[in-house]
Amino acid sequence: MILIDTQKEEFTKLKDIRIFEKLDNEQRYNGDLLVIGLGGMGSQVVCDMKGMLMGEITPDDNIQYLMVDSDIPAMENMIEASRDGIGLNATEIISIYRPNLENLLVKGIKENPVHPNLANWMREDFPQINIDTDGAKGNRQIGRLMFSNAYEDMRVLLFDKLEEAHTRSKSGKLDIIIVSGVAGGTSGGILTDLTYNIRAYIRSKKWNDVRVGACLLMPDVLYSKREIVSNPDLLANLNANGYATLKEVDYYMRLTSKDKDERYIFESTTHKLTIRENIFDACLLISGKKDEQGYIPDGVIYSDVAYFLTKLASVKHVGQGGDGEKGKLLRDVFFDMDDRGYYKIINESDYKIPIKQIENICEYEIFAEAYKKLHELSEDDPQAKESRQKVFGELDAFLTGKPGDEIKLSVNGIIPIKQFEKPVYKMIKKNQDGLRENMGRQLTSMKDRIPIMIKSLKNHVLDTLNAELEWFMQKKGPYAVMDIIGCGGIGSSEKDRGMIADIDRLSGLMKQYQPTGEYSRIIESIKDIVAKRFFTFPSAKRETENGYYDACIKECLTLQRNMLIEGMSDQDMFGDITRFLRAKAERLEELYAQFNEDLKNAVEDLAANGKRITGFLLKDAKQQEYLPSDYITQDRVDELYKGIVKLLADNESNIDNGRIVPVKQEMERVYKNILIGVGMYAPEKMISVAFADKRPTLAELNMMFVSPTNETRAEIMDRAAKAFVEGASEKTAKKKLCILKPGFKVNITNHKYISLPAIMPFFSEAVTRLLTAPPYKEDRNNISLNTGDVAISVDDMYIGVPLSMMACIDDMRKAYEVVPDSYLGLHIDEVNKDMKTEFPGVA
User: Fold this and answer.
1) Which residues form a coiled coil (predicted)?
2) Looking at the chain, which terminus has fewer C-beta neighbours within 10 angstroms, N or C?
3) 63, 83, 93, 310, 641 from 88: Cα distances, Å
4) What distance lies between CA 749 and its chain's CA centroid?
């Protein structure tokens, strides 16, 4: 059976199972957040963020997403992807494209001017262009024109989203983060207009606890694309757009309500908006990242940015608070204004402690034993023998019986022998006993009923058979059912055995049966003797009566047996039962062979991936085992075995009909029941097994963690901390979200925040000792414990970053100077000095 795509997704969900690090959402997420993606770059970041949080958050967390774009095919693809559980859905997407602009500028703006209030800011020499469904095509003026044209109905959708997010906020607070590229026609063209419309709506509603931040992606994020860097005109246009967008953003970042001569103005056909205030409460800059081979692909950058945004959506504290209180929320730090500059950049790195991968390895160790048991039903299994006896015992006794033996079959219509009374000698002599005649009449009637009787007998056998197979299905799984059936070539049977062999044997007995007239001859002999002789002794008469009666009974039983066996043969009863069993076994193999293989492969793949990761990250570990030496007991194997059987048996109909099987939920339940035996401090215990000199038993491991202090535990945790911290330091150096010019560190204020997992207190204590000692010498006040992530998280937040210090600014300035017409000013024409001169050093 080939699994449907949705079922394949269920197997991929196995990797999302959480046992030891599963935590209450109320502890993990800091909701009341609306993330808006503008254009292609911003929308992809938001889409990635949604994917990372999918399955982790609930509607009560009030974390919402919105995409605003002009590229209809891109939006349609996004909606289509959302049907498979990824991407943004139709309620999370707003289009600024409207068909009424399609032919508006095909002859240029002079020949066909637009409404003055809609685009009185457009250049008089604007070239001929056809506006289509595939976006603003890198033209900022077109992006803004599309926004202004669609504003009358688009504003309703936008403001409804704001209302929904604010209404759902239990505290009345709401944070809005706008993620946008600066080089695109849509994103660069509508960034200011959309943000200030949001600002104006917030002010009109008198929402005092709403903050608006930005995450801006620079043009060099795209430098890894060959089609861009090999096209000088396209590259220059992107850089020029970025330069123009940043000039305007920088200008409005400095606006305050006191700047009476400076203001932002927006006009559509019927609306005009004027506002004086800074555009963003916080602005994060993202630029390209380089490694030894050049720029890293933009998809990696989108994912890293999305991951940082998930941190802002989490209850993540940074630094140390006073009097034992937790430090500030990372989101509050992100929104903090700073006198030394308007922009922030981030170096962030989460060095995941591979608890999930370790769990996968441990789960597989037990799973492999349980899976083996799933396929190991012995032909000598007592329950299998008992079951086969229950199904075929009556038939076996009947077919191995002799002519004249009593017939014990669960079928109506067998002539009850006890009804016949023993005739007296006198009546036998006169041939008036009527016994044989009575039997003959009933045998004749039975002969007419034989087809019905055989069908009833077959149905009884099949009903008993079904009940036994269902019991095995529920208790031992489909492969046990296939094994007890025993069809050669199906399951683990190379040749026919089990029930199939039983039927073959019974069929052979049936064919070997030889009818006999022995009892008829005995009766005739007795009658001849009685007719010729007269017995005067009572004992002789009794002997005659008994002999005659017994012979008649056995003759009746023999004739019944003959008819039943002949009926079985005529109706091919054993052939029907064999065909039923073969069909049952073939169906089970068809249903479960691929499913079982996919289940095994999914668990194996997770374990293999876990070994690759832990083998690299924990290369200093003493061994690659993570469970105590005595942990895999028969009871735990049986527990997992029962769980797999339940998964398979309960979902037979789902598999048969191509419906989704909830693999993740069932396996998570089973794993939780098994691994719960590790007890308190499970992640640290599993790491301790790997870093201990000798693999400990469960009792030894529990002893290590039973007291607040333990020298052996401390030594092991120090070893583990060293392995993780060295890896984290190496990774953090590469995990940059922005490229700045050399020497920036002396001019920019840096705040470092280190987060350690609260659910691993002993490990986190060891990491803290290591980080605060040489050569790291980190300030202890920078280190905090956090609930939620099993990671060493290092965030370097650089405050007061001037635009002139960004490495890509030179490329943008060059594009502006070489191709001045590429600068399509939308709001301002002032020269931004910071982008042309060195920024004063910041103490």
Assistant:
1) 578-605
2) C
3) 13, 9, 7, 16, 39
4) 41
Residues ≥6 apart with Cβ < 8 Å to 208: none
d(CA 326, CA 27): 14
Provide the 10 A C-beta neighbour count for residue 113.
Answer: 16
Assess whether 654 and 540 both reside in one domain: no
Helix axes 573-617, 711-734, angle to 10 degrees: 80
Task: List strand residue ranges (DSSP E) for 709-823, in order.
Answer: 749-757, 783-786, 791-799
Residue 739 φ then ψ, to 5°: -105, 120
Q: How far apart, in whole angstroms, are the C-alpha atoms of residue 63 and residue 35?
A: 8
* Residues 553, 654 share a domain: no
With the CA atoms of 759, 762, 767 and 769 taken in that order, what torsion angle do they form, in degrees rounded to the nearest 10? 140
Is residue 188 a contact partner of residue 241, using CB atoms and an 8 Å limit? yes
Strand partners, 347: 736, 796
d(CA 314, CA 49): 12
**Is 448 a member of any domain?**
yes
Q: What are the start-end ranges of the H helices in 352-477?
A: 355-374, 382-400, 425-429, 435-476
Number of Cβ within a 10 Å radius of residue 623: 13
pTM of the model: 0.77
Comparing 109-113, 130-134, 469-473, 781-785, the range with the smallest average pLDDT is 109-113
Distance CA 698, CA 455 (A): 59
Last residue of some domain: 704, 725, 757? 704
State the Cα angle at 354 between 351 and 355, rounded to 5°.
130
> End of a domain among 645, 669, 704?
704
What confidence tens digit (pLDDT) does each residue in 169-179 have?
Answer: 988 899 999 99
Between CA 780 and CA 785 the distance in angstroms is 12
Mean pLDDT of the chain: 86
Smallest Cα–Cα separation from 113: which of 821, 134, 190, 123?
A: 123
* Residues 529 and 388 grouped into a single domain: yes
Q: What is the pLDDT of residue 843?
A: 32
Give CA–CA dist 35/179, Å, rounded: 7
Residues 596 and 551 both lie in one domain: no
Domain that holds residue 130: 31-288+338-342+806-835
| CA distances (Å), origin 806, targets 189, 254, 345, 439, 491 | 22, 19, 10, 110, 65
Q: Would residue 412 count as lying in a domain? A: yes
Is 342 strand, coil or helix?
coil
Burial of 128 (0-12, 13-18, 19+ CB in 10 A): exposed
Residue with tokens 């001929």: 128
pLDDT-wise least confident of 149-158, 470-479, 524-533, 748-757: 524-533
Q: What is the mean pLDDT of residues 106-125?
A: 73
843, part of any domain? no
For 76, phi then psi, to 5°, come to -65, -40
Q: With both helix axes pointing from N to C terminus, report the angle between 573-617 and 5-12 in degrees, rounded to the nearest 10.
A: 50
Q: How far apart are CA 543 and CA 724, in angstroms?
A: 99
Please give the Cα distance from 513 to 734 (Å, whole number). 85
**How far apart (Å, rounded) are the C-alpha atoms in residues 378 and 480?**
9
Checking DSSP bridges between strand 343-352 and strand 326-329, what pairing results, if any? unpaired
Q: Which residues contact 730 (CB under 8 A, 6 or more apart)?
A: none
Structure-token match 């958050």, residue found: 57
Residue owning tokens 């002396």: 746
- pLDDT, one tens digit per residue, over 634-664 is 999 999 999 999 999 999 888 888 888 888 8
Residue 119 shares a structural domain with residue 216: yes
Identify whether residues 401 and 252 lie together within a single domain.
no
Cα diameter, the chain: 148
Cα 214 from Cα 46, distance rounded (Å): 12
Phi/psi for 154 (5° steps) reads -65, -35
Are residues 454 and 369 located together in one domain of the fold? no
Say if residue 492 is in the same domain as residue 621.
Answer: no
Tokens of 41: 């770059």
